Task: inverse folding
């Protein structure tokens, strides 16, 4: 791969006093602009592997190349100033304000004051951190805010490579999910090469462009795009690690946008009662949607037809709505809990079709 | 000057008139007391820092360092000064050697404990961002160890201020001068004055060091978030 930003070649690490290697003969590449996630059970050497990339741990044998340069050819502290690093506990400096924390690496690199100040402003905006925190100490921030400040600090000198060791492990699930979304959003703008370590397979699937599944002793079981790994696990270990809900996990990677939607039991407000009945029969449901041009006004139960023509009916609002960008995993719950197993899909306000339980299972079979 | 007869003849426990008429001497002895204490703490800190850094850098050297300074700490002060006089005489040097010796154990222990107590995550993130050993110590570890180091300094300061009075025996002593002279001529006012001044100085210096600590470690005061 010519555009590999990080390359590990037969890397082995044996810690002093240990006979079994923590990582054994590991090789893989991370392309420029990709998020690679190292995931596996404890003792699989994922953190050791990560720390070898910025030389916090030095390999016993093998070679690691970052941006075309053997990491062992650069003094460790200089190498690390060029590689962003985020850890689970964040490790903000308690005695420095948030602004000073973020300015850490630019200062180590000897940037001048105005340039540092401007960069700090930029980073507050980038990670969506309230500028009121500039002169506060880390103690007064919440876990999520500290994590954002930690990411801002790692990005301060605009390093091409970012290493993240269980970055969202210490925050609660709701904040974690939001921080994951923020990371993906940042990455769409910044195109960094990111290596992220986690023990959470769902996190790996969600944020990884490529996922490396490691077994105890740093053995690489499978390395590939999450969708490929979920569709074709390389062996029993991977299959087991992915869990029994592998199919549902795959759904989380499929946006509704990619599914051929059906028009659904939907008729125009000008339609006849007969047309509405035909539409309901086609989908085997006892309700129909009423369209005002492009806009889905709502729905009405079949019993309403006894009351008069469609034009005169009061359309009821949909309780269940899906967005075009939602994943099939999000949609699954909505679809199977609606009593007719059908949910309308909207692109903004525009009605684009309906999603059925059958359509979802059809996608999985592909 | 008050004569011995005058002093002994008056049976009042504490004579303010004596105090008012000796303000100059009192100020001189208080100043001397503070000087002796300041030099002891300054030199003690310098030596303690050197030894603590050696102990941190080479962990195997730490037990012998605490063993030797611990031994110094156990020598009775009276005996130490008596031992030193034949070598260094009735000098400020003699006083300071003794005073400095007694600060070392507390200071070294607190410097080492303070640095070792720095959150490992903070250390790891610092190294991970490209801090070298020296910068890490000076910019991260020592500042974060300050509350513990200053706690040690406060104990050392209070201890030293008390000990300074003993150096009256070798012709120094700060306000200890009054205690010794008062004992020699059965003059309660001087004994009480010397003791009270020593206690007041200790309290005042302790309060001052708390203020210094607050000023130097503003980050420890911000309200935390749960």
Result:
């Amino acid at each position: 791969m010519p555009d590999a930003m990080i390359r590990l070649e037969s890397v082995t690490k044996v810690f002093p006093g240990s006979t079994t290697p923590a990582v054994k003969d590991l090789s893989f590449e991370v392309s420029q602009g990709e998020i690679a996630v190292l995931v596996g059970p404890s003792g699989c050497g994922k953190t050791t592997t990560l720390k070898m990339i910025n030389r916090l741990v030095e390999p016993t044998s093998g070679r690691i190349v970052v941006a075309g340069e053997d990491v062992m050819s650069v003094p460790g502290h200089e190498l690390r100033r060029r590689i962003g690093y985020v850890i689970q506990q964040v490790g903000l400096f308690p005695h420095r304000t948030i602004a000073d924390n973020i300015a850490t690496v630019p200062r180590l690199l000897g940037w001048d004051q105005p340039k540092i100040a401007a960069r700090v402003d930029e980073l507050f905006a980038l990670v969506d951190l309230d500028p009121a925190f500039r002169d506060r100490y880390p103690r007064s921030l919440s876990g999520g805010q500290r994590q954002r400040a930690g990411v801002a600090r790692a990005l301060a000198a605009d390093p091409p490579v970012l290493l993240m060791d269980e970055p969202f492990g210490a925050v609660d699930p709701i904040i974690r999910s939001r921080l994951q979304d923020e990371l993906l959003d940042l990455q769409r703008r910044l195109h960094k090469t990111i290596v992220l370590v986690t023990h959470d397979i769902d996190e790996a699937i969600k944020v990884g462009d490529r996922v490396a599944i490691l077994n105890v002793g740093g053995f690489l079981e499978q390395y590939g795009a999450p969708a490929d790994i979920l569709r074709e696990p390389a062996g029993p270990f991977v299959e087991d690690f992915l869990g029994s809900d592998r199919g549902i996990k795959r759904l989380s990677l499929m946006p509704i946008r990619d599914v051929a939607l059906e028009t659904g039991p939907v008729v125009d407000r000008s339609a006849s009662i007969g047309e509405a009945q035909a539409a309901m029969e086609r989908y085997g449901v006892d309700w129909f949607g009423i369209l005002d041009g492009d806009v889905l006004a709502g729905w009405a139960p079949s019993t309403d037809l006894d009351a008069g023509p469609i034009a005169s009916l009061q359309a009821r609002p949909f309780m269940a709505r899906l967005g075009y960008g939602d994943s099939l995993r999000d949609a699954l719950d909505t679809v199977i809990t609606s009593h007719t197993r059908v949910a309308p899909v909207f692109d903004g306000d525009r009605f684009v079709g309906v999603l059925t339980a059958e359509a979802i299972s059809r996608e999985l079979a592909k | 000057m008050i004569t011995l007869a005058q002093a002994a003849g008056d049976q009042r426990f504490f004579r303010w008139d004596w105090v008012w008429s000796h303000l100059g001497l009192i100020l001189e002895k208080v100043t001397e007391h503070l000087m002796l204490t300041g030099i002891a703490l300054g030199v003690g800190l310098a030596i303690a820092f050197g030894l603590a850094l050696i102990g941190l850098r080479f962990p195997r050297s730490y037990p012998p360092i605490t063993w030797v300074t611990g031994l110094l700490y156990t020598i009775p002060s009276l005996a130490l000064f008596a031992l030193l006089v034949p070598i260094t005489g009735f000098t400020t040097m003699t006083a300071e050697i003794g005073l400095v010796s007694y600060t070392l154990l507390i200071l070294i222990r607190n410097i080492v404990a303070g640095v070792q107590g720095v959150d490992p995550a903070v250390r790891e993130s610092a190294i991970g961002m490209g801090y070298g050993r020296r910068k890490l110590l000076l910019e991260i570890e020592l500042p974060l160890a300050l509350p513990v180091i200053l706690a040690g300094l406060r104990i050392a300061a209070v201890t030293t201020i008390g000990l300074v009075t003993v150096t009256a025996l070798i012709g120094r002593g700060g306000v200890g001068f009054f205690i010794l002279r008062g004992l020699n001529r059965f003059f309660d006012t001087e004994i009480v004055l010397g003791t009270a001044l020593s206690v007041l100085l200790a309290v005042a210096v302790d309060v001052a060091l708390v203020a210094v600590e607050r000023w130097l470690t503003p980050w420890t005061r911000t309200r935390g978030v749960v």
Summary: The longest helix of chain B spans residues 23-57.
